[in-house]
Design brief:
single chain, 168 residues, mainly alpha, hpI Integrase, Chain A, 3-stranded antiparallel sheet, 6 helices, 6% strand
């Protein structure tokens, strides 16, 4: 639902997340390009985070290490979970969720590419030529993130899925 890089997800801290304001503010020190980044949180993400908060909210990390709450979960955890679900490394990776979101938001949901790119924290120049304006299009990005989560819910519930038939 948030399509951040796996490293940003696994090192998420409760102090960065405003559940009432439905925002996750990632400091530049954690970002690839070292710029602060705002992730608008859809209703579904807020619900998930509230449920996780009952488990890990007393610590620093949203997703702490299984061994100690003093460190975030391992960089291998997300890919390990995918392997455990049967996805080979050449089929899907944690980072691949970003490409999936980018593709489907553009081609299926027809969302403006510059909004998607801003949300992916990619270099995007605004009309005045400034790159990395992390607050650019924030209201539209909020709507986009909610649209994305609603789309994922539809897929989860079986809507918009084309059934495949066996060869005749």
């Amino acid at each position: 639902m948030v399509f951040v890089r796996p490293g940003e997800l696994r090192t998420a801290e409760w102090t960065e997340i405003d559940l009432d304001g439905a925002e996750w503010r990632i400091p530049g020190s954690k970002m690839k390009m070292k710029n602060d980044h705002i992730v608008p949180l859809c209703k579904q993400a807020v619900e998930v985070l509230k449920s996780i908060q009952t488990l890990t909210g007393g610590g620093k990390y949203v997703f702490p290490s299984i061994r100690t709450g003093q460190r975030p979960m391992s960089e291998n955890t997300i890919n390990g979970a995918l392997r455990g679900m049967g996805y080979a490394s050449d089929v899907h990776t944690g980072h691949g969720f970003r490409a999936t979101a980018r593709t489907l938001m553009d081609e299926v949901l027809e969302i403006r590419v510059d909004h998607i790119e801003h949300q992916l924290a990619h270099t995007v120049k605004d009309p005045n030529g400034r790159a990395y304006n992390r607050t650019a299009h924030l209201p539209a990005r909020r709507d986009m993130m909610q649209c994305w989560a609603d789309y994922l819910d539809k897929l989860r519930l079986g809507a918009d899925v084309i059934p495949l038939r066996g060869a005749a």
